[in-house]
């Protein structure tokens, strides 16, 4: 036997030690499915041809083969394989992928990443299937095999738990799945929480010193800036007071306030994910005329207009 595949087996043999005085005219090859008792004819060759490709086999089936030499008197005793041969590709399915992980997880998606199997079964890996467990059963996420080592799952439900595994495939078929992983669809990081209402510690004719408490949650990512905003009483839109200036402490001096105007302030915390919800606005305070009248008295000695 020289070679085999899932649909054929290549057979080879040697000429008999004797032809008993009559030249050999050809060879007869027979095969038998090991689950059956009878041999059937596979093919014939001429006297010079000492090989035959036994084709049209059923993949995965075990066969026995035998060969007869033929001359004018008849056929010889057969030469038979010692062990049955299985019609299959000459290599195995690949091993399981390794280092499976879920990255960039959000409330609606996750990037599934993995690495190639340590054993390719003797044939290059041609693709991968990602499987997700649904209602207790494994189902393929991708119907066509992917050739890259990642797949985005973008149809997840927030706070749901998911089980995922990956299978590699080569010319021999799909291998065994890797060990499953479990993850929850939620943001690894979130925006910060809402800071406490800012307090006006002191004022001058055109500035105000603000202070506030940090939010209870930083979204599991450090706060990189506080956006300080102000709004005149008669306006509807907020204006950023620290545009182009990062504020990392929980205090800030707002400058260039117009005399005689009433202002309120709010603060928004921001991290690498983005800005959170703004704080409740501070109490509305009038600047300029009251500062001139009261000088540098404390805030609770100034006129405060409630919203």
Word description of this protein:
The protein has 307 residues and is an all-beta fold. It has three domains: 3-86, Sandwich (Immunoglobulin-like), CATH 2.60.40.10; 98-184, Immunoglobulins (Immunoglobulin-like, Sandwich), CATH 2.60.40.10; 199-305, Immunoglobulin-like (Sandwich). It contains one helix and 24 strands. The protein has one helix at 289-294; strands at residues 3-4, 9-12, 26-33, 40-46, 51-54, 62-70, 79-80, 85-86, 98-103, 110-115, 127-134, 137-140, 150-153, 161-170, 173-174, 181-184, 199-203, 208-211, 225-232, 239-240, 251-254, 262-270, 284-286, 304-305. Strands 3, 4, 6, 7 and 8 form a five-stranded antiparallel β-sheet that branches. Strands 11, 12, 14, 15 and 16 form a five-stranded antiparallel β-sheet that branches. The longest helix is centred in the C-terminal third of the chain and has 6 residues, at 289-294.
Overall pLDDT score: 89
CATH architecture of the largest domain: Sandwich
| Computed CA radius of gyration, to the nearest angstrom | 41 Å
Principal-axis shape: rod-shaped
Helix content: under 10%
How many individual domains?
3
H-E order: EEEEEEEEEEEEEEEEEEEEEEEHE
Computed structural class: mainly beta
Name the poorly predicted regions: 289-307
């Amino acid at each position: 036997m020289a070679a085999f595949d899932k649909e054929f087996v290549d057979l080879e043999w040697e000429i008999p030690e004797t032809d008993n005085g009559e030249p050999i005219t050809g060879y007869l090859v027979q095969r038998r499915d090991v689950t059956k008792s009878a041999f059937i004819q596979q093919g014939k060759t001429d006297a010079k041809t000492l090989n035959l490709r036994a084709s049209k086999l059923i993949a995965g089936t075990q066969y026995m083969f035998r060969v007869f030499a033929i001359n004018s008197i008849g056929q010889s005793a057969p030469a038979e394989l010692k062990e049955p041969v299985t019609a299959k590709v000459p290599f195995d399915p690949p091993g399981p992928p390794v280092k499976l992980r879920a990255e960039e997880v959000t409330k609606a998606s996750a990037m599934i990443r993995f690495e190639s199997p340590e054993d390719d079964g003797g044939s290059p890996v041609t693709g991968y299937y990602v499987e997700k467990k649904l209602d207790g059963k494994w189902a393929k996420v991708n119907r066509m095999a992917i050739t890259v080592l990642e797949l985005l799952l973008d149809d997840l439900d927030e706070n749901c738990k998911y089980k995922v595994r990956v299978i590699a495939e080569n010319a021999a078929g799909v291998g065994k799945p890797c060990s499953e992983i479990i993850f929850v669809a939620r943001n690894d990081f979130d925006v910060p929480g809402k800071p406490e209402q800012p307090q006006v510690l002191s004022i001058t004719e055109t500035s105000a010193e603000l202070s506030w408490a940090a939010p209870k949650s930083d979204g599991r990512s450090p706060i990189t800036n506080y956006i300080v905003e102000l709004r005149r009483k008669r306006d509807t839109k907020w204006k950023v007071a620290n545009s182009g200036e990062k504020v990392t402490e929980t205090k800030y001096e707002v400058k260039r306030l117009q005399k005689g105007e009433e202002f309120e302030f709010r603060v928004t915390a921001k991290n690498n994910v983005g800005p959170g919800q703004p704080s409740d606005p501070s109490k509305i305070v009038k600047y300029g005329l009251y500062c001139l009248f009261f000088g540098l008295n404390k805030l609770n000695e100034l006129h405060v207009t409630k919203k």
